[in-house]
């Protein structure tokens, strides 16, 4: 079976293959980089041409959409009711009917941790004192970003019109 000579041959073949790959890497580095891979002050230079592009000030300015008041003025309650179906898996709209999440009847303007019978995480207190339309808008965009550490697993509503529609729907529930 296996004797010392066979084990030595196998070990030598593995070491030889590793050595071959090491030399191939060094050769490729020397071939594809200027000066053996290292320039002045330890900087690595890659052979090729550098194309410099001027940065325009226009590219730095982020495109801003309409302001919050304009978005909320165009909110549609019926559309918000349809979009709310995503939320209804964890939230109920009947007063006092907590589920995985707290009930949302009268949530607009309510203190953040005030749904009776629901245990809130401390992370939600980072959002603010009350669920103002502005706080809800920010929270619904990305709950994990607005309140890091929250147990809410919803990824958020990316469209600003969807967020505004849901807020309008929630606001219409308690007249």
TrEMBL record:
Entry keyword Transmembrane helix: yes
Alphabetized InterPro entries for the sequence: Cyt_c-like_dom, Cyt_c-like_dom_sf, Cyt_c_1A/1B
Leader sequence residues: none
Heme among keywords: yes
Name of the protein described by the UniProt record: Cytochrome c
Domain of life: Bacteria
Subcellular location: Cell membrane
Domain Cytochrome c: 75-174
Pfam families: Cytochrom_C
Organism from which the protein derives: Lentibacter algarum
Keywords from the UniProt entry: Cell membrane, Electron transport, Heme, Iron, Membrane, Metal-binding, Transmembrane, Transmembrane helix, Transport
GO cellular component: plasma membrane
Membrane topology recorded in Swiss-Prot or TrEMBL: Single-pass membrane protein
């Amino acid at each position: 079976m296996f004797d010392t000579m066979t084990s030595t041959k196998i070990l030598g073949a593995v070491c030889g293959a590793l050595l071959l790959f090491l030399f191939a890497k060094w050769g490729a580095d020397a071939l594809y980089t200027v000066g053996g891979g290292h320039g002045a002050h330890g900087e690595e230079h890659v052979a090729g041409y550098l194309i410099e592009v001027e940065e325009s000030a226009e590219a730095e300015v982020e495109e801003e959409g309409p302001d919050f008041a304009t978005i909320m003025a165009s909110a549609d309650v019926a559309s918000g009711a349809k979009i709310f179906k995503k939320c209804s898996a964890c939230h109920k709209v009947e007063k006092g009917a907590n589920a995985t999440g707290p009930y949302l009847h009268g949530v607009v303007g309510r203190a953040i941790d005030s749904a009776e019978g629901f245990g809130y995480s401390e992370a939600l207190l980072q959002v603010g004192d009350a669920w103002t339309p502005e706080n809800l808008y920010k929270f619904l965009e990305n709950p994990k970003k607005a309140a890091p550490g929250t147990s809410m697993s919803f990824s958020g509503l990316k469209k600003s019109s969807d967020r505004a529609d849901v807020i309008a729907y929630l606001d219409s529930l308690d007249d």
